[in-house]
Amino acid sequence: MGEKSLLKKEYILQKAREVFAEKGYRAVTMKDVVDACQISRGGLYLYFDSTKELFLAVLKKESEEADDTFSREIREDATAADILTLFLKEQKKELLRKKNTLTVAIYEFFFCYQVPKKENVLRQQFDTAVKVLEVLLKSGVENGEFVCASPKAMARHIMFILEGLKIASCSMGITEEMIDEELVVIMQSIAKEES
Amino acid sequence: MGEKSLLKKEYILQKAREVFAEKGYRAVTMKDVVDACQISRGGLYLYFDSTKELFLAVLKKESEEADDTFSREIREDATAADILTLFLKEQKKELLRKKNTLTVAIYEFFFCYQVPKKENVLRQQFDTAVKVLEVLLKSGVENGEFVCASPKAMARHIMFILEGLKIASCSMGITEEMIDEELVVIMQSIAKEES
Amino acid sequence: MGEKSLLKKEYILQKAREVFAEKGYRAVTMKDVVDACQISRGGLYLYFDSTKELFLAVLKKESEEADDTFSREIREDATAADILTLFLKEQKKELLRKKNTLTVAIYEFFFCYQVPKKENVLRQQFDTAVKVLEVLLKSGVENGEFVCASPKAMARHIMFILEGLKIASCSMGITEEMIDEELVVIMQSIAKEES
Amino acid sequence: MGEKSLLKKEYILQKAREVFAEKGYRAVTMKDVVDACQISRGGLYLYFDSTKELFLAVLKKESEEADDTFSREIREDATAADILTLFLKEQKKELLRKKNTLTVAIYEFFFCYQVPKKENVLRQQFDTAVKVLEVLLKSGVENGEFVCASPKAMARHIMFILEGLKIASCSMGITEEMIDEELVVIMQSIAKEES
DNA sequence: CATGAATGAGAGTTCATTCAT
DNA sequence: GATGAATGAACTCTCATTCAT
User: Fold this and answer.
1) What is the CATH number of the domain that holds A145?
2) Which of D26, D161, D171 sits opposite C160 (nearest CB)?
3) Which of A105, B40, C145, D187 has a CA-to-CA distance to A69 between 20 and 30 Å?
4) What is the mean pLDDT of residues A63-91?
5) Which residues of A touch B120 (CB under 8 A)?
6) Of B108, B123, B164, the CB nearest to A160
7) Is the same domain home to C49 and C89?
8) pLDDT cut 70: percent of chain B above it
9) Do residues B80 and B139 make contact, with C-beta atoms less than 8 angstroms apart?
């Protein structure tokens, strides 16, 4: 595949992302993507054979870009608390975003297919996030920044709360206050108790 | 509509429930339901005009039955802690159910339609659960069973965790241990601190 | 068929007439008639087996009633010119009626079926009208009321003009002035020339 | 749409015309056209979305072709009487055609839809014909070929007679003699009276 | 007589997918 | 590589018609 083709593939992915963000996963047809890209039906099939393939490619690209962004924002001398705060701030931003979110599509996708563990990007991302949080909490505990009996369990706990907020936000809507309330609870539950 | 028709309607709803539990919401066609019920195409349309109508009817029935079940299981002399424990036990049972769960379909449905607030059963159920939990927590606090600064915020907090577990359970699977861990955290956070 | 049944049949015909007047011929389904009559599907089939049968029955009733009305309005001492004027006045009234007209349905019906000559009510009515007009013109000529070389041809001529007006009125609409213009032309063409 | 597609569109229109001529308007289904064209269901939808769209396209083509034919047949040195005679001859030919006539379908179509004035092709054609006849009659009067007090009213009168003949011909059938009789009446009514 | 639930044929419509150009 | 016309399977929905009650 030449360079030109790669560019076109990128172009298709970008347009497809918009379509998935707007219509979710299942409702998207190859025709929708063809229309959004203004290319020919056959043309799309040269690059992707199904909406599933397209969606997985979009996800992969998305996840790579997200990692980049997050890494870039962490300063050299950041403390564990700084990083956790940054992480939660990013999550809040995402939760409040109305448009251009793949959240719905992602859930729909993983509802559709009982994806095997290894291919389950959703689970992988969850597990990765848990691991990162765990390391963060541990290092925070060592520094004396946090208090936390089981960093692993707490990491998972935080992620469940965030998942709960995420799903609530896109299926029934939540207010900024509700998010803040939860983030405060999280921070308090690991804060060093002052006596 | 005579008594016989009502029975048939019930029958269709029960079969439709199975179909939704198996295939989610969007993937279900009227034909799927027709096939599951072993009735004629037109026959189904006598009772329901669309999968949407069917699904809402299934939901309504489901919710009524759940209310009945829960009410029946509460003993006369139950304490707030008893009731909360029962509630969490029910939630755990539901979380561990693999088959026959409408969870996926429900989320899919509410992703599809940006349902107006008033008609949003999902939100209504969430809000109702929050209110019930709030009352429960308050009465527990008054009895000296629980300690909790803001029962309302805590009620919402519990529901977000449960939502997080629910979504995790059906999109990527969770273990019983993970559930128990969360339930323990919940119980601890409102337990009277022993000194 | 008992007296009660006859009444019901009449009732159905009356309701069916309304439906045909509103929707034309082809668009009418047995279901439409059932709904209009508020009777059961099976109930309708006891009396009529198809919309065609229904429509022919409506037509028959209509034509009988029209004959009655016309006969009743002719006074004993009416001259040929009086009767012709009355006839044209009736036609004009019918042409201007917007609602409750079977005209469209009738044309539609006879477009649908290449009805054999004997059963062609439309043709029979046309021929009957021509004959009546012919007799009228002849008697008018004999009285010296009209001047007309071939009463038969003139009768047919008048009917063609009326048909033209009728079709124009229901397919594209006509004004009262246009009708009057034509009626004047008709009356002039048979009027005794005054020198 | 390439040149090949245009050819196919033409092909579909031609076949659709045959179907409409045979079955009228309402009775025609997309399937009928598909069968007549020997193409696939989806194939037809690439070109036309409904029988209505198809019919309007057929009408448009028909009317363009009719205009061409008529223009081509008028000789340079034709008198008003020549042209009128040619026009009436064309009308007679059309009236006598048994097969392949869209007349029924056209009426049916305009019965179905209470088409708004501007889109009402039937009315437009009628009005256009009236205008052309009016000009023709005026010029004939100026030349001394015709005698006619109000060319406009006479033009309309002629069109009503032709409409009457048309509708009679397709709903109940008419003979060539009946047509000739009417055409003679028309020509006589504008002929210069010979004293 | 009368009901209305039930059937199934058939119309409309949309798309994934293929393939000649 | 790229196009877009073409196919046909699948789905939604409506009714004429039947039949047990």
Assistant:
1) 1.10.357
2) D161
3) A105
4) 88
5) 172
6) B164
7) no
8) 96
9) yes
Give B158 CA → E14 C1' in Å. 45
The per-residue pLDDT for range D175-193, each reduced to its tens digit, is 999 999 999 999 999 986 6
| D11 Cα to chain C: minimum distance (Å) | 26
Tell me how close the Cα of D134 comes to any Cα of chain C, in angstroms.
15
H-only helix segments in chain D = 3-23, 30-37, 41-47, 51-73, 80-96, 103-112, 121-143, 151-171, 176-190
Instruction: Name the domain boundary from B14, B32, B58.
Output: B58
pLDDT tens figures, C22-77: 988 998 999 999 999 999 999 999 999 999 999 999 999 988 888 888 788 787 78
Interface contact A129, partner B, CB < 8 A: no
- What does the pLDDT read at residue D176? 96
Expressed as residue numbers, the domain containing C12 is 1-58
Higher-scoring residue by pLDDT: A113, B6: B6
Looking at the fold, whether D52 and D106 belong to one and the same domain comes out as: no
Residue A67 lies in a domain: no
Q: Where does the pLDDT of residue B195 fall: very low under 50, low under 70, confident under 90, or very high at 90 and above?
A: very low
- The average pLDDT across A34-38 equals 95
**For chain B, what's the residue count?**
195
Nearest Cα to Cα of residue B156 among A101, A180, A192, A92? A180
For residue range D104-149, list pLDDT tens digits in order.
899 888 877 777 777 788 888 899 999 999 999 999 999 999 999 9
CA distance C49 to chain D (A): 20
Domain membership flag for residue D10: yes
| Residue C193 amino acid letter | E
User: What is the C-alpha separation between A110 and A104, in angstroms, rounded?
Assistant: 10
Residue A195 has pLDDT above 50, yes or no: no
Whose C1' is closest to the CA of A31: which nucleotide? E15
**Contact at CB, A26 and B108, closer than 8 angstroms:** yes
**Does residue C182 sit within a domain?**
yes
User: Span B173-184, mean pLDDT?
Assistant: 95
What token pair was written down for D165?
């003949």
pLDDT of residue D3: 67
- One domain for residues D50 and D79: no
Nearest CB to C185: which of D120, D157, D172?
D157
Q: Which amino acid is at A89?
A: K
Contact by Cβ (8 Å): A81, B133:
no
Single out the residue in C27, C58, C89 at which a domain terminates: C58
Task: Tell me what pLDDT residue D195 has.
Answer: 43
Q: Do B163 and A163 touch (CB under 8 A)?
A: yes
* Token pair listed for C133: 């007009």
Distance D8 CA to E20 C1' (A): 16
Q: Is residue A167 part of a domain?
A: yes
Query: Which residues in chain D are closer than 8 Å to C173, comparing Cβ atoms?
Result: 117, 123
Q: Which one has a higher pLDDT value, D76 or C180?
A: C180
Preferred mutation among C22, C130, C152, C163 to probe D, highest tally of D CBs within 10 A: C163
Nearest CA-CA partner of D10 in D62, D50, D67: D62
Q: How far is the CA of C31 from the C1' of F19 (A)?
A: 18
Q: For residue range A178-194, list pLDDT tens digits in order.
A: 999 999 999 999 987 64
- Within 10 A of C69 (CB to CB), how many other CB atoms are there? 10
Reported pTM: 0.86
- Determine phi and psi for B191, rounding to 5 degrees: -70, 145
Through-space separation of residue C42 CA and nucleotide F19 C1' in angstroms: 10
First vs last C-alpha separation in chain C = 65
Our count of domains for chain C comes to: 2
Task: Go through chain D and tell me how many residues it has.
Answer: 195
